[in-house]
Amino acid sequence: MCSTKPTPSIDYSKRSGYFRTRIVWPNVFFFIFLHCAALYTVFGCAHLWSWKIFCVWYLTACLSAYSVSIGAHRLWSHRCFKARLPLRIVLMLLNCMAGQNDLFVWCRDHRLHHKYTDTDADPHSTTRGMFFAHMGWLMLKKHDAVIEKGKSLDCSDLLGDPVIRFQRRFYIPLYFLGVVIVPSWIIYRCFDVPLLFAVGTSLTRYTFQLHNTWCINSLAHWFGDRPYDKNIKACDNPVIKWHLIGECFHNYHHVFPFDYKSSEFPFTIFDTSSSLIRLLSYVGLTYDLKEASQEAVARRKEKIGQDGGLY
Length: 311
Ligand SMILES: [Zn+2]
Ligand SMILES: [Zn+2]
Hints:
Blueprint: H1 25-44, H2 51-77, E1 82-83, H3 85-98, H4 103-115, H5 130-134, H6 144-152, H7 156-159, H8 162-169, H9 171-191, H10 195-218, H11 250-255, H12 272-282, E2 286-287, H13 294-304
Bound molecules: zinc ion (2 copies).
């Protein structure tokens, strides 16, 4: 653990893997606790699980995953489409279940990731290794460049949304309600299981969900195809695509971040978030869906895309 010396002038194009900072021990202990609780609930309480409990568990996992993919990522971070107030409220409430910081912080960090990918100002730069990009960055004090650039980034549109302001104001009680209290209460009341086990199922879902999201920062910047830009680390990852939520076409997403589909393909089972956004547009809950043109995609592939690959 070391103290950070303030850097007078920071070179944001620098891609150094090493920096001195301090460990955020409360976060370290929290993640250790979370993983121990999840492992004990899965293996130590295996006899208490039933397929009905697993279905509810899986449903809450999917709902919180969609709140991140459709809400935090494509709606609020990238403005790929617009959404009516009732949908924004639902996405915000489900997002509390995901428990990945309030929407303002999540979107600001994600915008920094896109604008300064793999430089010192990227909160989870892969130049510091895959563990850092996956979850290590949450256990260390942020680099000065991340803090400085985060302050100067224009996020006025986020604070202009009353739904985000509400969540930010009441985030701590909403976090506990969404991550633990409500999902545990549902399982406790519906399946007549011990309360501690019900809490354990919520913590298991939360841990699983966190890794699901973190894999996009690590695996999808590590290995896979680069059909749209062979010069960047972000790649279309074959492992992440099996969670079916979307976000696996990360090379495409870094090249065309404004596209609501997050992929070239209008209909693909590997990106159900896009189908949901389109479905919601038929009932007027989403509108102004933005897409990259087929010509622009083809041009890009021909110009700097990587040939061949897994897809
Ligand atoms: Zn990325
Ligand atoms: Zn993004």
